[in-house]
Specification:
Largest sheet: none
Strand content: under 5%
Shape: globular
Radius of gyration: 16 Å
Number of strands: 0
Structural class: mainly alpha
Distance between the termini: 21 Å
Number of helices: 9
């Protein structure tokens, strides 16, 4: 059971309601995480703005979902693991094998694997990656803009992982057990 209230959309702060309506329009539902963050309209606006901006970047949707899975598994976030497995499969069209591999920062292609390995190192080392790790990512074909986007995708996922881990957000996606 969630340790922080998850209001209905109608009981959310007035300033959060149009933002939650936009989430509903995009996904067809309003996940518990969005309603939880909506306790603070400023936090919800900030999260949605950053997520929306990153969706317009150079990283593909499937890669962003794979990064989310890598980071969720690393941070032990059951909510995000379940959410991104669902979104990865149903929106980004990742296979079950891709989802399973991404949880361990692996992929069937070397470029994606390089991004996932780098993302996990960013999370594990709190951004203090080595020159060799950065060079390996660049050698896989990622330019400076993509490097920044990978770091920001890690950060936005750390944000939601931490919110969910603090709140014990009720999982409203098909549950997946952490490894």
């Amino acid at each position: 059971m969630s340790r922080i209230s998850i209001p209905t959309v109608e009981a959310s702060p007035t300033a959060s309601q149009p933002l939650l309506a936009a989430v509903h329009k995009q996904l067809g539902v309003v996940p518990n995480l969005m309603k939880l963050i909506g306790n603070s309209p400023a936090a919800l606006e900030g999260y949605l703005s950053l997520s929306g901006a990153l969706a317009k970047g150079s990283l593909s949707g499937p890669l962003r979902e794979a990064i989310a899975l890598t980071v969720a598994e690393y941070n032990g976030c059951e909510y995000c693991l379940a959410a991104h497995a669902y979104l990865g499969k149903n929106l980004a069209k990742l296979s079950d094998a891709d989802i399973d591999a991404a949880r361990d920062a692996h992929a069937s292609d070397t470029k994606t694997e390089a991004a996932l390995q780098f993302a996990r190192q960013v999370a594990a080392q709190r951004g203090r990656v080595s020159d060799a790790e950065l060079a390996s990512l660049r050698a896989a074909g990622f330019n400076d803009a993509a490097v920044i986007e990978i770091v920001l995708n890690v950060a936005v996922n750390v944000l939601t992982n931490y919110v969910n881990n603090v709140a014990h957000t009720d999982v409203d996606f098909p549950a997946i057990s952490l490894r």
